[in-house]
Amino acid sequence: MEQRDPLVAGQVPQLDLEVKELLNAGRLPEANTLFDQVVGRVPPGADRLQRAAVLINQGKLAWRLGRIPLALELAAEGWTDLDGEHSDNPAAALAMHALAYLLEGIGNRRAAIDMLRLSAQVARRAMDSHETAAEVLSQCLQGLGGLLNFRAISSPPDQAPAIFEEARGYLKEGLELVKAEQTRLALMSAYGCALAGVGEFEQAEETARETLRQARDAHNNWALAGANWVLAGVRREQGRLVEARTLASRAVAAAEAINDASLLLRFSLDLADICAELDDHVGEAAALRCSVAASKTSMVTLQEGLGQALEQRRVAVQAQRLAVAAQEAAARDPLTGLANRLGLERAAAGLLEGTAARGRVPWLVLVDVDRFKGVNDDAGHAAGDATLREIAQLLRRECRAADLVARWAGDEFVVLLGDTGGSPLDVGPVVAERIRAAVDGHDWTMLGTTQRPTVSIGVAAGPAKLDKLFAAADMALYRAKRHGRNRVEVEPHVEIPEIVSGN
Length: 503
What we know:
Elements: H1 14-24, H2 28-38, H3 48-64, H4 68-82, H5 90-105, H6 109-125, H7 133-153, H8 160-177, H9 181-197, H10 201-218, H11 221-237, H12 241-257, H13 261-277, H14 281-330, H15 341-357, E1 363-369, H16 372-379, H17 381-398, E2 404-409, E3 412-417, H18 427-440, E4 455-461, H19 466-482, E5 488-490
Parallel strand pairs: 4-5
Antiparallel strand pairs: 1-3, 1-4, 2-3
Helix pairs in contact: 1-2, 1-3, 3-4, 3-5, 4-5, 4-14, 5-6, 5-7, 6-7, 7-8, 7-9, 8-9, 9-10, 9-11, 10-11, 11-12, 12-13, 13-14, 16-17, 17-18
C-alpha cells in the first residue's frame, strides 16, 4: 500500500494531502476543485500549533495553485497562531517548513532559509517525545537541502561546492529517516542535484534514474522534473549536449505541468544555455520565452503579494484606529463629553505622579450640583441633561487644558489639578471658587424653571493617591452641603508637604 505523508497529531488532513498529490501529478483542475472543499477546514480538537500547521500548509497549496491573495491570507492567519512558538512540537516544525516555502516564493530568501533551519531544529528536539517527529524532520531536511541546492547554483563558483556539500548532508540524513513515498521522492530528486554539485556524477545519475522510475509509478511530475534536470546537468558535464537538451526539455515540460514558476524559471534558463552551446537558436529562443513567462509569473505573484500586504496593512491600521476610538469612547461620558470615571482613574495616576515628580502638590476639586433632583422634577430630564452639559462647559472654561475634568457619576464632577505652578497652597480653593461663581452667575433661563442650579464644592490637596484625595474632598463637600450649599469647603486634614517656590 502506498505510504502517505504523516498525520502529525491530526493536523495534516488527508484531503489536504490528496490536493498535494494532484498538484505533483500536474492535475491542476482536479486539485483546485478538491482544494475548494478543504480550504479553511481544521480538524476538530486541533490545538493552536496544529491549526497553524493546517492553515500554513493550505496557504502553500493555494500558492502552488496560483491563488496568491488566499495563500497570503491563510499564511498570515496560521503564522499568527505559530508566532513566538519554538517548542519541540512536530506540528510547529511542519508549519515552519510550509511557511518557508511561501517566504521563498515572495522573495524573502534569507528568512526562508532561517525558517527552514529552525524547523529542522524543532523537529530534532521532538524526536525523543513524538513518534511522528522523524517523518517531519525528513520533510524539513528535504526543504532545507533543496533550497540550499538553489542557493549553491546561484552562488559564485568558489562558494557553491561548500553549499552543495551542506545540502547533501541534510538530504542524506532525510533519506535515512523517511517512510512516506512523496517525501522520499522529493528527497531523492534533491539529493541527486547535491551529488552532481559536489562532482559525484555517477552516483548523481544513479539516484536520478531511480527517482525517475519511482516518480513515473507515483505519477509525481515534481520529482520527474527534478530528476530530468539532474540528468541534464550530468550529460552537460559529460559533453553529451543533445541528450542534455532532451532531458532539460522534459524537466521544463514537467515544471510547466505542475505550475511551479520557480522551477520553470531555473530549468528553462539551463535549457537555453544548453541550446546556445548547440547553436540551436530556435530552441534557445523558445527556452528564453519560457523563462520570460516564468519571470512574469513570479513578478505578478510578487505584485499581488505586495498588494495583499498593503491591503492587510490598511485593514490593520483601520482596526487599530477603531480600537483606539472604542477605548477612548469607553473612557468618555457621552452626555457631557468629559472623561468618565474610568477615564479619570486611567489618567489620574500619571498626573499625580508627574505632579509629585516636579515637587508640586495636586488638588482635587469635587463638584456636586445642588438640589439636582428638583431641576429634573420641575423641568424634566431633558432640562437636567442640559444643566449637566452647561456645567461641563463651565468647568472646561474655568480650568486649564492640562487639568483633568471628569464626570464622576450622576450630578458629581471631579477636577484634578496637576502642576499648580508657583502658588500651590491656594490654587485649589481659587479654582473651586471660580467654578462656583461661574455656575451661580450663569444665565439659566433656557431651562424654563425657577430652580437655578448651584454647586457645592469640596477641595483637598496632598501627595495621596486618587482614592485618598477623593475621600478627603468628599468630607469637605459634605460640610459645604451641611452649611447651606452653593459654597466651597477645603479639607484641612490632608498632609501638604513643604513646597519650595520654583522647584
